Amino acid sequence: MPKIGAHVSAAVSLDLSFKRAEEIGAECTQIFISPPQQWAKTLHSETEIQTYREQAKKTRIGPNFIHGVYLINLASGKPELVQKSIDWLIYSQEMAEKLGAEGTIFHIGSAGSRGQEEAIKQVIKAISQILEHSQTNLILETSAGAGNTIGDTFQELGQIIKGVGESRVKICLDTQHIFASGYDIRTKEGLDKVVGEFDKEIGLDKLVAVHANDSKTELGSHKDRHENIGEGLIGKEAFRDILNHPTFKDLPFILEVPGFTNSGSDQDNIKILKSLLSTS
Ligand SMILES: [Zn+2]
Fold first, then answer.
1. Residue 133 assigned to a binding site
2. Residue 234 in contact with residue 226, Cβ under 8 Å?
3. 168 and 132 in contact (C-beta within 8 Å)?
4. CA distance 68 to 51
5. DSSP character at residue 26
6. Distance from CA of residue 225 to its chain's centroid?
7. Which of 60, 187, 197, 266 has a CA positioned 20 to 30 A from the CA of residue 122?
8. What is the pLDDT of residues 69-120, one digit of tens each?
9. CA distances for 247 relative to 158, 192, 206, angstroms
10. Residue 241 annotated as lining a ligand binding site
């Protein structure tokens, strides 16, 4: 059965993310290891790292992921921005290893006014560089496709993965982002078609996590706007199909929703996803 979890706060001390996960019934987590709007590389002490590992073991919550800061852009035309992104991701990958986390999930970034092919070549080079300096999985997130974003089509992600040619490059599928990119997952037939296309262009063996988010904006809107499960345009029934589809049966589902009281991913959203799981 899929594990149902959420993005949880790791503020003050990383290990507190497990306490917060337990409070809402999350079975797996995603955290920030530094403020997401900054380039800071927060230093976490050996004691903090040790406590995190102990809590992961004790609570049996996992798999656990790190989410990259929002400033990352491996496709940018500005070399210093690309270098900062590479450096931060190397830091994050080192932390993932120390924490025993699965790896870093991040948005590749936007090519701006540059040509797609040129940007993709640069992304491949940057990812190879990051992998040279780390051991864990590097996880590319499907993007909503605003502006000239890289990673909004399975074809593009497949091209990058093939270009890097390293088994540690994985994919996190965000239901809201792919919906905004035009992948219609609202019906069973639609879902089968999307899964088939993912397999053809990327390979289902690359899929390691799902960001489970409903959508505030319509199919093909190219807008990154998450909604609580059942309150958006994807809808509860579609999530029932996704959760019970054989493709997703062993995957962690991570909520990144506003929450019913606007306090972030909450117990109610987790309960909804769990209730949709078929127990037969
Ligand atoms: Zn996401």
1. no
2. no
3. no
4. 22
5. -
6. 15
7. 197
8. 999 999 999 999 999 999 999 999 999 999 999 999 999 999 998 999 999 9
9. 18, 10, 12
10. no
Residue 70 CA to residue 81 CA, distance in Å, equals 12
CA distance 8 to 31: 6
67 annotated to bind ligand: yes
| pLDDT for the residue numbered 146 | 83
**Known binder of ligand: residue 107?**
yes
Residue 224 marked as a ligand binder: yes
Distance of CA 105 from the midpoint of ligand 1 (Å): 9
Cα dihedral across residues 160, 165, 169, 175: positive or negative: positive
The fraction of the chain above a pLDDT of 70, given in percent, is 100
The phi, psi pair for 131, rounded to 5°, reads -65, -30
Q: Say how many Å lie between the CA of residue 160 and the centre of ligand 1.
A: 19
| Ligand 1 centroid to residue 170 C-alpha, Å | 14
Tokens, residue 76: 């940018």
CATH architecture of 3-276: Alpha-Beta Barrel (3.20)
pLDDT tens track for 212-254: 999 999 999 999 999 999 999 999 999 999 999 999 999 999 9
pTM above 0.85, yes or no: yes
Cα–Cα distance, 87 to 218 (Å, whole number): 36
